[in-house]
Design brief:
Order of helices and strands: EEEHEHHHEHHEEHEEEEHEEHH
Number of domains: 1
Distance between the termini: 60 Å
Largest sheet: 9 strands, mixed
Radius of gyration: 20 Å
CATH topology: Spore Coat Polysaccharide Biosynthesis Protein SpsA, Chain A
CATH architecture: Alpha-Beta Complex
CATH class: Alpha Beta
CATH superfamily: Spore Coat Polysaccharide Biosynthesis Protein SpsA, Chain A
Length: about 290
């Protein structure tokens, strides 16, 4: 029997989310809604679609009990009340959440420096012994019939020699200066050389933007250590991936869906609007409402 090569995923939501205050002083950013379910559930579903068996959510100390409650509490009293009212179907979305793969919620190691690599490093003990694992930032969501988790797992099956996969999406020339842009190795259109962070317009090495969807091997962990901080004295996942790419092969995959960020309130609203238009029954009414309100 073929043994599954990618079994675990790390999803990070361990930042302060200061651009969303005051709501994020109580509600983790990944719990902000897309329709009637939170961003984090949308990403967990992406993992489940790819056959992931265990998910490690790295949260803030305030966020940890919120996520544990959301993914484990069966709200039995509500289920009983719905049954008594003949509305059992309304419980089905809750059962869907309870049926997800195993979810473990941890907090970031406080001894690690600030930076998006620290939540990944904090989950190291959960991926010890794994051949490869996914890393997914809760800021980034993927729309489409095939989302990135499955694309990465499929690419790894087809390219077993790689030490990592990073996902990318083409961005327009007017926004290349806002993102990390992929530089390929010489004579290659698939292998990462390094990421150019926010290049000046006209200097970009490609039009492919990198975002928070990675398949990594344990090779990366030797670089996710406090002594390896980079810009602004932060620990960066991309820096660690670039260091692996110096001696090993990191494959660049292109999304089969559409990447959108929820990293700030404006982009979150845009992503939420797309979700409603695409997936909610009332989505077709939105354009009428906009005319009404304006």
């Amino acid at each position: 029997m073929h043994e599954k090569r990618v079994r675990k995923a790390i999803i990070t939501d361990a930042g302060f989310a200061s651009r969303y205050l005051p709501i994020t002083k109580t509600v983790p950013k990944g719990m902000l809604p897309l329709g009637n379910k939170p961003i984090m559930q949308f990403i967990v579903e992406e993992c489940a679609e790819a056959g992931i068996e265990e998910i490690i959510i790295v949260a803030t100390p305030e966020g940890k009990p919120v996520y544990e409650d959301y993914f484990n509490n069966n709200v039995n009293r509500i289920r009983k009340q719905l049954a008594a009212q003949g509305k059992e179907d309304r419980y089905e979305p809750v059962q869907h959440v309870l049926d997800f793969p195993k979810i473990v919620v941890i907090t970031q190691d406080e001894s690690l420096p600030y930076g998006n690599g620290s939540p990944v490093a904090s989950a190291q003990r959960f991926i010890d012994g794994e051949e490869a694992f996914l890393v997914m930032y809760s800021d980034d969501i993927i729309f489409g019939a095939q989302r990135d988790a499955k694309t990465m797992v499929d690419l790894y099956e087809a390219n077993p020699d790689v030490s990592g996969i990073i996902m990318s999406q083409e961005v327009s020339l007017d926004v290349v200066h806002k993102y990390g842009i992929i530089k390929f190795k010489a004579d290659s259109s698939t292998d990462l050389d390094y990421i150019v962070e926010k290049p000046n317009k006209g200097t970009e090495p490609s039009r492919l933007g990198s975002y928070g969807r990675y398949l990594l091997t344990p090779d990366v962990m030797q670089y996710l250590v406090p002594s390896n901080t980079g810009k602004d004295n932060e620990l960066w996942t991309v820096d660690a991936i670039t260091q692996v790419a110096k001696t090993k092969r990191i494959l660049v995959g292109k999304t089969k869906g559409e990447w959108m960020t929820t990293g700030d309130p404006e982009n979150y609203f845009k992503a939420h609007l797309k979700f409603v238009l695409d997936q909610e029954k009332y989505g077709e009414k939105v354009s009428e409402w906009v005319k009404e309100l304006s």
